[in-house]
Amino acid sequence: MTSSADTTRVRDAYGRFFDAAPLPLPECPEGDGIFGSWGVDDAGLPRYTYEMDHSRDERARYHTSEGASRDHWHALGNDRITALAHNEGHVEVMDWDRAGKYINKWDPKRGQFAGGYKYVATAGRTWNTLWSELPADAQQERYFGVGYFEKRTRCAGLLLVERIEAPPGDVPALLSTSRITNESDAPREVALIEFWSANLHILLPTPVMTHKLGRLFTAWRRRFNRHFVVDTHVNDAAKVLWAAWRLKRPQKAPPRDKATWGDYYPNAAFLAWLDEEPPVAYTTDGEAFLKHAEVTNGALLKNACARRGNVVLAAKRVFMLQPGETRELRYLYGYAQPDILPNCVAAYAQQALAPPPRPQIEFVTADAAWLDRETRWHSYYLQANAIYQEFTKCHIVDQGSAYSALHGAMGAHRDYALFALPLAYLRPDLAREMLRFSMLSQDKRTGALPYAHIGFGKQSGAGVHASSSDLDLFFLLAAAEYLRATRDFSLLEEAVPYHPASAGIAANGLEH
Predict the structure, then answer these.
(1) What is the pTM of this model?
(2) Separation of alpha carbons 408 and 417, rounded Å
(3) CA 42-145-33 angle, 5° bins
Protein backbone atom coordinates (compact mmCIF):
# COMPACT_ATOMS: atom_id res chain seq x y z
CA MET A 1 0.00 0.00 0.00
CA THR A 2 1.27 3.47 -0.87
CA SER A 3 1.84 5.70 2.16
CA SER A 4 0.69 9.30 2.32
CA ALA A 5 4.35 10.37 2.62
CA ASP A 6 5.19 8.60 -0.65
CA THR A 7 2.23 10.20 -2.39
CA THR A 8 3.23 13.64 -1.11
CA ARG A 9 6.80 13.12 -2.35
CA VAL A 10 5.58 12.23 -5.84
CA ARG A 11 3.42 15.35 -5.88
CA ASP A 12 6.37 17.47 -4.71
CA ALA A 13 8.59 15.98 -7.40
CA TYR A 14 6.04 16.82 -10.09
CA GLY A 15 5.75 20.39 -8.77
CA ARG A 16 9.51 21.06 -9.04
CA PHE A 17 10.19 18.97 -12.11
CA PHE A 18 12.45 21.57 -13.71
CA ASP A 19 14.19 22.75 -10.53
CA ALA A 20 17.95 22.26 -10.34
CA ALA A 21 17.98 21.03 -6.74
CA PRO A 22 16.94 17.38 -6.27
CA LEU A 23 14.43 16.27 -3.69
CA PRO A 24 15.88 15.06 -0.37
CA LEU A 25 16.46 11.32 -0.54
CA PRO A 26 14.32 9.37 1.96
CA GLU A 27 15.81 6.70 4.21
CA CYS A 28 15.07 3.32 2.64
CA PRO A 29 16.47 0.10 4.14
CA GLU A 30 15.32 -2.15 1.28
CA GLY A 31 18.22 -3.93 -0.38
CA ASP A 32 20.65 -3.64 2.56
CA GLY A 33 22.09 -7.12 2.02
CA ILE A 34 24.46 -9.01 4.28
CA PHE A 35 27.40 -6.60 4.10
CA GLY A 36 25.86 -3.55 5.77
CA SER A 37 23.09 -1.02 5.41
CA TRP A 38 21.95 1.82 3.18
CA GLY A 39 21.55 5.34 4.50
CA VAL A 40 21.62 8.99 3.52
CA ASP A 41 24.69 11.19 4.08
CA ASP A 42 24.87 14.88 5.03
CA ALA A 43 24.62 15.88 1.35
CA GLY A 44 21.33 14.00 0.98
CA LEU A 45 22.91 11.32 -1.20
CA PRO A 46 22.90 7.53 -0.80
CA ARG A 47 25.64 5.97 1.29
CA TYR A 48 26.39 2.36 2.14
CA THR A 49 27.75 1.52 5.57
CA TYR A 50 29.98 -1.53 5.21
CA GLU A 51 29.54 -3.37 8.54
CA MET A 52 30.86 -6.88 7.92
CA ASP A 53 34.07 -8.11 9.53
CA HIS A 54 35.28 -9.53 6.24
CA SER A 55 38.38 -11.04 7.84
CA ARG A 56 36.31 -13.42 10.00
CA ASP A 57 32.85 -13.68 8.51
CA GLU A 58 32.69 -16.66 6.13
CA ARG A 59 29.96 -14.92 4.12
CA ALA A 60 32.59 -12.49 2.85
CA ARG A 61 34.45 -15.29 1.07
CA TYR A 62 33.95 -15.93 -2.65
CA HIS A 63 35.80 -17.68 -5.45
CA THR A 64 37.81 -15.96 -8.18
CA SER A 65 40.07 -17.19 -10.95
CA GLU A 66 42.98 -16.46 -8.61
CA GLY A 67 41.47 -18.40 -5.69
CA ALA A 68 39.40 -17.45 -2.65
CA SER A 69 38.95 -13.77 -1.86
CA ARG A 70 37.33 -11.59 0.79
CA ASP A 71 37.99 -8.37 -1.07
CA HIS A 72 34.98 -6.09 -1.71
CA TRP A 73 35.36 -2.66 -3.25
CA HIS A 74 33.73 0.61 -4.25
CA ALA A 75 34.50 2.73 -7.32
CA LEU A 76 35.79 6.28 -6.94
CA GLY A 77 35.97 8.33 -10.09
CA ASN A 78 35.41 11.52 -12.04
CA ASP A 79 35.98 12.39 -15.71
CA ARG A 80 39.68 11.52 -15.45
CA ILE A 81 40.67 9.31 -12.55
CA THR A 82 39.35 5.92 -11.49
CA ALA A 83 40.12 4.23 -8.20
CA LEU A 84 39.02 1.26 -6.12
CA ALA A 85 38.36 1.70 -2.39
CA HIS A 86 38.61 -1.67 -0.64
CA ASN A 87 36.99 -3.03 2.49
CA GLU A 88 40.47 -3.59 3.94
CA GLY A 89 40.88 0.19 3.93
CA HIS A 90 43.30 0.86 1.08
CA VAL A 91 42.71 2.63 -2.24
CA GLU A 92 44.17 1.64 -5.63
CA VAL A 93 44.42 4.29 -8.35
CA MET A 94 44.28 3.63 -12.09
CA ASP A 95 45.47 5.81 -14.96
CA TRP A 96 44.01 5.26 -18.43
CA ASP A 97 45.56 8.23 -20.26
CA ARG A 98 48.14 6.08 -22.06
CA ALA A 99 47.24 2.37 -21.78
CA GLY A 100 45.55 1.14 -18.63
CA LYS A 101 47.70 0.89 -15.55
CA TYR A 102 47.73 0.87 -11.77
CA ILE A 103 50.01 3.46 -10.23
CA ASN A 104 49.86 1.97 -6.71
CA LYS A 105 48.74 -1.64 -7.00
CA TRP A 106 48.07 -3.62 -3.82
CA ASP A 107 50.43 -6.62 -3.78
CA PRO A 108 51.40 -7.49 -0.18
CA LYS A 109 53.40 -10.57 -1.25
CA ARG A 110 55.77 -8.22 -3.06
CA GLY A 111 55.79 -5.59 -0.29
CA GLN A 112 53.49 -3.18 -2.16
CA PHE A 113 50.65 -1.75 -0.09
CA ALA A 114 48.74 0.70 -2.33
CA GLY A 115 47.88 3.64 -0.04
CA GLY A 116 45.03 5.87 1.02
CA TYR A 117 45.35 5.21 4.74
CA LYS A 118 47.17 6.69 7.73
CA TYR A 119 49.82 5.78 10.25
CA VAL A 120 49.23 7.27 13.69
CA ALA A 121 51.77 7.57 16.51
CA THR A 122 50.73 8.81 19.95
CA ALA A 123 51.36 7.95 23.60
CA GLY A 124 54.08 5.49 22.65
CA ARG A 125 51.88 3.55 20.21
CA THR A 126 51.98 3.35 16.41
CA TRP A 127 49.19 1.89 14.28
CA ASN A 128 47.64 2.23 10.85
CA THR A 129 44.02 2.28 9.70
CA LEU A 130 43.93 -0.89 7.60
CA TRP A 131 41.18 -3.15 8.96
CA SER A 132 43.41 -6.17 9.62
CA GLU A 133 46.10 -3.97 11.20
CA LEU A 134 43.89 -2.17 13.73
CA PRO A 135 44.78 -2.53 17.42
CA ALA A 136 42.47 -4.75 19.48
CA ASP A 137 40.95 -1.74 21.27
CA ALA A 138 40.20 0.18 18.05
CA GLN A 139 36.77 0.62 16.47
CA GLN A 140 36.25 1.50 12.82
CA GLU A 141 33.27 2.41 10.66
CA ARG A 142 33.51 2.26 6.84
CA TYR A 143 31.30 4.15 4.39
CA PHE A 144 30.99 3.91 0.61
CA GLY A 145 29.45 7.15 -0.68
CA VAL A 146 28.82 8.99 -3.93
CA GLY A 147 32.38 9.78 -4.99
CA TYR A 148 34.04 9.00 -1.67
CA PHE A 149 35.29 6.37 0.79
CA GLU A 150 35.26 7.30 4.46
CA LYS A 151 36.70 5.57 7.53
CA ARG A 152 36.08 6.64 11.13
CA THR A 153 38.52 5.09 13.56
CA ARG A 154 38.54 5.44 17.35
CA CYS A 155 41.69 4.38 19.13
CA ALA A 156 43.83 5.56 22.05
CA GLY A 157 41.52 8.47 22.85
CA LEU A 158 41.55 9.78 19.28
CA LEU A 159 38.88 9.93 16.57
CA LEU A 160 40.36 9.89 13.07
CA VAL A 161 38.02 10.53 10.13
CA GLU A 162 39.59 9.77 6.73
CA ARG A 163 37.79 10.71 3.54
CA ILE A 164 39.17 9.87 0.10
CA GLU A 165 37.10 11.38 -2.69
CA ALA A 166 37.18 11.88 -6.45
CA PRO A 167 36.14 15.51 -6.95
CA PRO A 168 33.81 15.98 -9.96
CA GLY A 169 35.45 17.34 -13.08
CA ASP A 170 38.60 16.61 -15.06
CA VAL A 171 41.04 16.30 -12.16
CA PRO A 172 43.52 13.37 -12.29
CA ALA A 173 43.75 13.24 -8.51
CA LEU A 174 41.97 12.14 -5.35
CA LEU A 175 41.38 14.52 -2.47
CA SER A 176 42.39 13.02 0.87
CA THR A 177 41.06 14.79 3.97
CA SER A 178 41.84 13.77 7.56
CA ARG A 179 40.14 15.17 10.66
CA ILE A 180 41.62 14.02 13.94
CA THR A 181 40.05 14.85 17.30
CA ASN A 182 41.43 14.40 20.80
CA GLU A 183 38.57 12.77 22.73
CA SER A 184 40.65 12.26 25.87
CA ASP A 185 40.82 14.64 28.83
CA ALA A 186 44.56 15.39 28.45
CA PRO A 187 46.71 17.11 25.81
CA ARG A 188 48.09 14.72 23.25
CA GLU A 189 51.03 14.92 20.85
CA VAL A 190 50.16 13.16 17.59
CA ALA A 191 52.22 12.18 14.57
CA LEU A 192 50.05 11.54 11.52
CA ILE A 193 51.54 10.05 8.34
CA GLU A 194 49.74 10.26 4.98
CA PHE A 195 50.74 7.09 3.13
CA TRP A 196 50.61 6.27 -0.59
CA SER A 197 52.84 4.07 -2.70
CA ALA A 198 53.98 4.44 -6.31
CA ASN A 199 54.45 1.16 -8.16
CA LEU A 200 53.70 0.91 -11.84
CA HIS A 201 51.64 -2.01 -13.18
CA ILE A 202 50.79 -1.57 -16.86
CA LEU A 203 47.91 -3.72 -18.13
CA LEU A 204 49.58 -5.09 -21.23
CA PRO A 205 46.88 -6.88 -23.28
CA THR A 206 46.56 -10.59 -22.50
CA PRO A 207 43.99 -13.10 -23.78
CA VAL A 208 43.83 -15.32 -20.68
CA MET A 209 44.18 -14.39 -17.00
CA THR A 210 43.09 -17.59 -15.27
CA HIS A 211 45.02 -20.18 -13.27
CA LYS A 212 48.71 -20.55 -14.18
CA LEU A 213 48.47 -18.41 -17.31
CA GLY A 214 47.24 -15.51 -15.21
CA ARG A 215 50.33 -15.69 -13.01
CA LEU A 216 52.52 -15.96 -16.11
CA PHE A 217 51.02 -12.86 -17.75
CA THR A 218 51.11 -10.92 -14.48
CA ALA A 219 54.84 -11.61 -14.24
CA TRP A 220 55.18 -10.51 -17.89
CA ARG A 221 53.48 -7.22 -17.06
CA ARG A 222 55.79 -6.65 -14.10
CA ARG A 223 58.75 -7.38 -16.36
CA PHE A 224 57.76 -4.46 -18.59
CA ASN A 225 59.09 -2.21 -15.82
CA ARG A 226 62.60 -3.25 -16.80
CA HIS A 227 62.42 -0.36 -19.28
CA PHE A 228 62.35 2.18 -16.44
CA VAL A 229 64.12 3.58 -13.46
CA VAL A 230 62.40 5.76 -10.87
CA ASP A 231 63.45 9.18 -9.62
CA THR A 232 61.65 10.98 -6.81
CA HIS A 233 61.46 14.76 -6.43
CA VAL A 234 60.13 17.37 -4.06
CA ASN A 235 59.27 21.02 -4.55
CA ASP A 236 58.57 22.73 -1.24
CA ALA A 237 57.34 25.94 -2.87
CA ALA A 238 54.73 24.05 -4.90
CA LYS A 239 54.09 21.71 -1.93
CA VAL A 240 54.40 18.50 -3.91
CA LEU A 241 56.33 15.23 -3.75
CA TRP A 242 56.41 12.96 -6.80
CA ALA A 243 57.84 9.82 -8.40
CA ALA A 244 58.67 9.79 -12.11
CA TRP A 245 59.40 6.72 -14.22
CA ARG A 246 62.23 7.38 -16.70
CA LEU A 247 63.31 5.24 -19.66
CA LYS A 248 66.68 3.57 -19.27
CA ARG A 249 67.32 3.79 -23.02
CA PRO A 250 65.16 6.61 -24.38
CA GLN A 251 66.89 6.44 -27.75
CA LYS A 252 65.34 3.00 -28.35
CA ALA A 253 61.80 3.94 -27.35
CA PRO A 254 59.07 4.58 -29.95
CA PRO A 255 57.91 8.20 -30.43
CA ARG A 256 55.41 9.41 -27.83
CA ASP A 257 52.51 9.60 -30.31
CA LYS A 258 53.10 6.15 -31.88
CA ALA A 259 50.60 3.39 -31.10
CA THR A 260 52.25 0.79 -28.84
CA TRP A 261 51.35 -2.29 -26.79
CA GLY A 262 52.40 -0.61 -23.55
CA ASP A 263 53.20 2.88 -22.32
CA TYR A 264 56.78 4.07 -22.66
CA TYR A 265 55.94 7.54 -21.33
CA PRO A 266 53.95 6.94 -18.12
CA ASN A 267 52.65 9.77 -15.99
CA ALA A 268 54.31 10.53 -12.68
CA ALA A 269 52.55 9.84 -9.36
CA PHE A 270 52.39 12.78 -6.97
CA LEU A 271 51.38 13.68 -3.42
CA ALA A 272 50.63 17.34 -2.73
CA TRP A 273 49.83 18.94 0.61
CA LEU A 274 47.13 21.61 0.47
CA ASP A 275 47.68 23.20 3.88
CA GLU A 276 49.98 26.15 4.49
CA GLU A 277 52.09 24.35 7.06
CA PRO A 278 54.50 21.90 5.37
CA PRO A 279 55.06 18.34 6.58
CA VAL A 280 57.66 17.82 9.28
CA ALA A 281 59.23 15.12 7.14
CA TYR A 282 58.64 13.07 4.02
CA THR A 283 60.10 9.96 2.47
CA THR A 284 60.03 8.06 -0.81
CA ASP A 285 62.11 5.06 0.32
CA GLY A 286 59.46 2.37 0.75
CA GLU A 287 61.83 -0.32 1.95
CA ALA A 288 63.06 1.80 4.85
CA PHE A 289 59.59 3.11 5.72
CA LEU A 290 57.84 -0.26 5.80
CA LYS A 291 60.61 -1.69 7.97
CA HIS A 292 60.14 0.93 10.70
CA ALA A 293 56.76 2.61 9.93
CA GLU A 294 58.54 5.91 10.49
CA VAL A 295 59.37 8.97 8.39
CA THR A 296 62.70 10.23 9.67
CA ASN A 297 64.17 12.16 6.76
CA GLY A 298 63.53 13.57 3.33
CA ALA A 299 65.57 10.99 1.41
CA LEU A 300 64.89 10.99 -2.33
CA LEU A 301 65.55 8.12 -4.73
CA LYS A 302 67.59 8.31 -7.91
CA ASN A 303 67.80 5.57 -10.53
CA ALA A 304 65.75 3.23 -8.34
CA CYS A 305 64.71 -0.12 -9.76
CA ALA A 306 61.19 0.18 -11.19
CA ARG A 307 60.64 -3.59 -11.09
CA ARG A 308 61.01 -3.71 -7.32
CA GLY A 309 58.24 -1.14 -6.87
CA ASN A 310 59.45 -0.01 -3.45
CA VAL A 311 58.65 3.69 -3.87
CA VAL A 312 56.30 5.42 -1.43
CA LEU A 313 55.01 8.97 -1.09
CA ALA A 314 54.65 9.51 2.64
CA ALA A 315 54.36 12.81 4.51
CA LYS A 316 54.45 13.25 8.28
CA ARG A 317 52.85 15.95 10.45
CA VAL A 318 53.42 16.32 14.20
CA PHE A 319 51.15 18.51 16.34
CA MET A 320 49.60 18.93 19.77
CA LEU A 321 45.88 18.42 20.33
CA GLN A 322 44.16 19.82 23.38
CA PRO A 323 41.16 17.91 24.80
CA GLY A 324 38.29 18.27 22.34
CA GLU A 325 40.48 19.93 19.68
CA THR A 326 40.28 18.87 16.01
CA ARG A 327 42.95 19.21 13.33
CA GLU A 328 42.20 18.89 9.61
CA LEU A 329 44.78 18.01 6.96
CA ARG A 330 44.31 17.76 3.18
CA TYR A 331 46.33 16.15 0.40
CA LEU A 332 46.01 15.38 -3.30
CA TYR A 333 47.22 12.06 -4.67
CA GLY A 334 47.17 11.53 -8.41
CA TYR A 335 49.15 11.54 -11.61
CA ALA A 336 50.41 14.05 -14.17
CA GLN A 337 52.90 14.30 -17.00
CA PRO A 338 56.35 14.75 -15.46
CA ASP A 339 57.15 17.81 -17.57
CA ILE A 340 54.20 19.80 -16.14
CA LEU A 341 54.96 18.96 -12.52
CA PRO A 342 54.99 20.77 -10.17
CA ASN A 343 53.24 23.65 -11.98
CA CYS A 344 49.95 21.81 -12.44
CA VAL A 345 49.33 21.15 -8.76
CA ALA A 346 47.86 24.55 -7.87
CA ALA A 347 45.29 24.25 -10.67
CA TYR A 348 44.38 20.70 -9.64
CA ALA A 349 43.98 21.80 -6.03
CA GLN A 350 41.70 24.66 -7.03
CA GLN A 351 39.50 22.31 -9.06
CA ALA A 352 39.42 19.69 -6.31
CA LEU A 353 38.43 22.15 -3.59
CA ALA A 354 35.75 23.91 -5.68
CA PRO A 355 34.39 21.20 -7.99
CA PRO A 356 31.30 21.53 -10.20
CA PRO A 357 28.15 19.71 -9.06
CA ARG A 358 27.86 16.05 -10.07
CA PRO A 359 24.71 15.52 -12.19
CA GLN A 360 22.24 12.86 -11.11
CA ILE A 361 19.01 11.34 -12.31
CA GLU A 362 16.06 10.97 -9.92
CA PHE A 363 13.33 8.36 -10.15
CA VAL A 364 10.42 9.21 -7.87
CA THR A 365 7.53 6.81 -7.53
CA ALA A 366 5.02 6.14 -4.78
CA ASP A 367 5.44 2.38 -5.03
CA ALA A 368 9.19 1.82 -4.67
CA ALA A 369 11.21 4.48 -2.82
CA TRP A 370 14.37 2.40 -3.20
CA LEU A 371 14.35 3.06 -6.96
CA ASP A 372 15.27 6.70 -6.33
CA ARG A 373 18.29 5.62 -4.29
CA GLU A 374 19.36 3.09 -6.92
CA THR A 375 18.94 5.57 -9.79
CA ARG A 376 21.06 8.21 -8.08
CA TRP A 377 23.67 5.61 -7.15
CA HIS A 378 23.86 4.36 -10.73
CA SER A 379 23.95 7.94 -12.02
CA TYR A 380 27.17 8.31 -10.06
CA TYR A 381 28.61 4.92 -10.98
CA LEU A 382 28.10 5.53 -14.70
CA GLN A 383 30.09 8.77 -14.49
CA ALA A 384 32.67 7.29 -12.09
CA ASN A 385 33.90 4.95 -14.83
CA ALA A 386 34.79 7.77 -17.21
CA ILE A 387 38.40 7.85 -18.39
CA TYR A 388 40.53 9.98 -20.71
CA GLN A 389 42.49 8.75 -23.71
CA GLU A 390 45.45 10.81 -24.83
CA PHE A 391 45.58 9.08 -28.22
CA THR A 392 42.10 10.29 -29.26
CA LYS A 393 41.87 13.15 -26.74
CA CYS A 394 38.43 11.90 -25.71
CA HIS A 395 36.71 11.16 -22.42
CA ILE A 396 34.71 7.94 -22.51
CA VAL A 397 32.89 5.62 -20.14
CA ASP A 398 34.56 2.24 -20.49
CA GLN A 399 33.09 -1.19 -19.82
CA GLY A 400 35.80 -1.84 -17.25
CA SER A 401 35.46 -5.10 -15.32
CA ALA A 402 37.50 -8.09 -16.53
CA TYR A 403 37.82 -6.65 -20.04
CA SER A 404 39.90 -3.63 -19.12
CA ALA A 405 41.10 -4.15 -15.55
CA LEU A 406 42.12 -7.78 -16.08
CA HIS A 407 42.76 -8.38 -19.79
CA GLY A 408 43.80 -4.83 -20.69
CA ALA A 409 41.32 -4.70 -23.59
CA MET A 410 38.84 -1.84 -23.67
CA GLY A 411 35.67 -2.72 -25.50
CA ALA A 412 33.38 -2.85 -27.16
CA HIS A 413 31.75 -0.04 -29.13
CA ARG A 414 28.32 -1.52 -28.50
CA ASP A 415 28.99 -0.89 -24.81
CA TYR A 416 30.08 2.68 -25.43
CA ALA A 417 26.85 3.19 -27.35
CA LEU A 418 24.72 1.73 -24.55
CA PHE A 419 26.42 4.00 -22.01
CA ALA A 420 25.85 7.01 -24.27
CA LEU A 421 22.06 6.46 -24.21
CA PRO A 422 21.50 7.62 -20.59
CA LEU A 423 24.42 10.05 -20.83
CA ALA A 424 22.56 11.93 -23.55
CA TYR A 425 20.30 13.12 -20.71
CA LEU A 426 22.63 12.93 -17.71
CA ARG A 427 25.87 14.21 -19.32
CA PRO A 428 25.31 15.21 -22.96
CA ASP A 429 28.85 16.59 -23.14
CA LEU A 430 30.25 13.15 -22.29
CA ALA A 431 27.82 11.39 -24.63
CA ARG A 432 29.05 13.57 -27.50
CA GLU A 433 32.68 12.77 -26.74
CA MET A 434 31.87 9.07 -26.81
CA LEU A 435 30.23 9.37 -30.22
CA ARG A 436 33.31 11.24 -31.47
CA PHE A 437 35.46 8.46 -30.00
CA SER A 438 33.60 5.90 -32.10
CA MET A 439 34.04 8.05 -35.21
CA LEU A 440 37.75 8.45 -34.48
CA SER A 441 38.00 4.67 -34.14
CA GLN A 442 36.53 3.84 -37.57
CA ASP A 443 38.99 2.35 -40.02
CA LYS A 444 40.20 4.83 -42.67
CA ARG A 445 39.71 2.28 -45.48
CA THR A 446 36.52 0.43 -44.54
CA GLY A 447 34.83 2.66 -41.96
CA ALA A 448 34.49 -0.41 -39.71
CA LEU A 449 34.49 -0.08 -35.94
CA PRO A 450 37.06 -2.14 -34.04
CA TYR A 451 36.04 -4.55 -31.32
CA ALA A 452 38.56 -3.49 -28.67
CA HIS A 453 41.26 -0.93 -27.87
CA ILE A 454 44.52 -2.17 -26.37
CA GLY A 455 47.74 -0.59 -25.22
CA PHE A 456 48.20 2.98 -26.39
CA GLY A 457 46.22 3.68 -29.55
CA LYS A 458 46.13 0.10 -30.83
CA GLN A 459 43.00 -1.74 -31.96
CA SER A 460 42.12 -5.43 -31.92
CA GLY A 461 39.40 -7.79 -33.06
CA ALA A 462 40.22 -10.05 -30.11
CA GLY A 463 40.25 -13.06 -32.39
CA VAL A 464 36.68 -14.37 -32.58
CA HIS A 465 35.25 -10.82 -32.41
CA ALA A 466 37.11 -9.50 -35.45
CA SER A 467 33.94 -9.45 -37.60
CA SER A 468 31.29 -8.33 -35.10
CA SER A 469 28.26 -7.37 -37.17
CA ASP A 470 26.28 -5.35 -34.64
CA LEU A 471 28.68 -2.56 -33.67
CA ASP A 472 27.41 -0.15 -36.33
CA LEU A 473 23.80 -0.70 -35.27
CA PHE A 474 24.54 0.25 -31.68
CA PHE A 475 26.56 3.27 -32.80
CA LEU A 476 23.63 4.49 -34.95
CA LEU A 477 21.23 3.87 -32.05
CA ALA A 478 23.36 6.04 -29.72
CA ALA A 479 23.77 8.78 -32.33
CA ALA A 480 20.02 8.91 -32.99
CA GLU A 481 19.23 9.09 -29.26
CA TYR A 482 21.79 11.85 -28.70
CA LEU A 483 20.49 13.94 -31.61
CA ARG A 484 16.88 13.46 -30.54
CA ALA A 485 17.59 14.31 -26.90
CA THR A 486 19.91 17.30 -27.42
CA ARG A 487 19.04 18.64 -30.90
CA ASP A 488 22.80 19.17 -31.22
CA PHE A 489 23.01 18.73 -34.99
CA SER A 490 26.46 20.33 -35.07
CA LEU A 491 27.73 16.81 -34.40
CA LEU A 492 26.80 15.94 -37.98
CA GLU A 493 28.81 18.86 -39.35
CA GLU A 494 32.01 18.45 -37.33
CA ALA A 495 35.03 17.11 -39.21
CA VAL A 496 36.36 14.01 -37.44
CA PRO A 497 39.40 11.99 -38.61
CA TYR A 498 39.27 8.26 -39.25
CA HIS A 499 41.70 5.88 -37.54
CA PRO A 500 44.55 6.53 -37.48
CA ALA A 501 44.29 10.31 -37.37
CA SER A 502 47.89 10.53 -38.59
CA ALA A 503 46.65 9.33 -42.01
CA GLY A 504 44.92 12.68 -42.46
CA ILE A 505 41.62 11.22 -43.71
CA ALA A 506 38.54 12.88 -42.19
CA ALA A 507 34.81 13.19 -42.76
CA ASN A 508 31.93 15.03 -41.13
CA GLY A 509 29.72 13.39 -38.55
CA LEU A 510 26.95 12.55 -41.01
CA GLU A 511 29.41 10.72 -43.27
CA HIS A 512 30.76 8.82 -40.29
Answers:
(1) 0.96
(2) 20
(3) 110
